[in-house]
Design a protein that fits this description.
By secondary structure, the protein is α/β, with parallel strands linked by helices. The chain has 12 helices and 9 strands. The chain has a 7-stranded parallel sheet, sandwiched between helices. Helix 4 runs parallel beside helix 5 and helix 8 crosses helix 12. The termini are far apart.
């Protein structure tokens, strides 16, 4: 039975990819830093292997017998050449054939973000690839922005008044599973978005209705966001990547709506209100 290695298996998207691959005829292996902690979240129905981009000694065992890989860039890694390139080379040497990479909508016009550099590494690797160029995740609201929304009823991101074509990670995972288990997706780049583009004032409005209390959007400047994140002890490199990503929204580059998600899944993408309803307990 063929093996699919899911890197980033405990993250927002990776955990959903694990679920989406459940009914497939592939052996699913979760690549994680801490197996005990991962099992507490994902259960015992899948295999686990230790993998850490910053520990090359973990590469050989992780890629052994693997044919396909779902690749996510860890948020704390911005140097693709130093950390991601050796892992891609190790995958190739181990016999991996295909990598589906979770990239970023509009990445081809944004060479600053690490996703662009990772795409370039895969393009020149000799491996088959599929790029999922996803818009901003709805689930950022119940993870990265959860505390601000729950404790202060405020969405604190430097996105200005720009619109964003938010996508639910469950839809991304469903597309990822298809790309890894079906033919016809090699050397394809899919632009994955939701069905509409919204600014964060509109998102706050939906949250206000569903949660039954007023949720606002304070629209901080990049400088204010940087200062607040430093007070929260976030690494500078991480903050700068976040600002670069939200700048795409600020300048209207994240609002493009594409038909790719609906075409691939055969149904409309999950909408923002449905997402908020499904995750409502996170903010209560």
């Amino acid at each position: 039975m063929s093996k699919i290695l899911v890197i980033g298996a405990t993250g927002n998207v990776g955990a959903e990819v694990i679920k989406a691959l459940g009914p497939s005829n592939f052996t699913v292996v979760a690549a994680v830093r801490d197996i005990g902690r991962a099992k507490a979240r994902l259960g015992d129905a899948i295999e686990y292997v230790v993998f850490d981009f910053k520990q090359p000694a973990t590469f050989k065992a992780a890629f052994e017998g693997v044919q396909k890989v779902f690749l996510v860039r860890p948020p704390d890694i911005s140097n693709a050449k130093k950390y991601i390139a050796p892992a891609i080379e190790a995958a190739k040497q181990a016999g991996v054939k295909h990598v589906t990479f979770l990239s970023l909508l509009g990445v081809e016009k944004n060479r600053v973000v690490p996703h662009y550099k990772i795409e370039q590494l895969l393009l020149t690797s000799g491996l088959d690839w599929t790029f999922l160029r996803a818009s901003f995740f709805m689930q950022n609201l119940n993870t990265a922005q959860r505390d601000d929304i729950k404790e202060h009823s405020d969405i604190f991101v430097p996105a200005g008044k720009g619109k964003t074509s938010f996508i639910d990670v469950r839809d991304i995972a469903a597309v990822a599973a298809k790309s890894l288990t079906e033919d016809g997706h090699v050397k394809k780049a899919y632009d994955l978005t939701g069905k509409v583009a919204l600014d964060y004032y509109e998102v706050a409005g939906y949250m206000t209705v569903v949660l039954g209390r007023t949720v606002g959007y304070s629209n901080p400047s990049p400088l204010k966001f940087f200062g607040q994140m430093r007070q929260r002890k976030q690494p500078i490199a991480f903050i700068l990547v976040m600002i670069a990503l939200y700048t795409t929204a600020r300048f209207g580059l994240a609002g493009r709506v594409t038909p790719d998600t609906e075409k691939l899944l055969g149904r409309p993408p999950i909408g923002i209100r449905q997402y908020i309803e499904d995750y409502k307990p996170a903010w209560l």
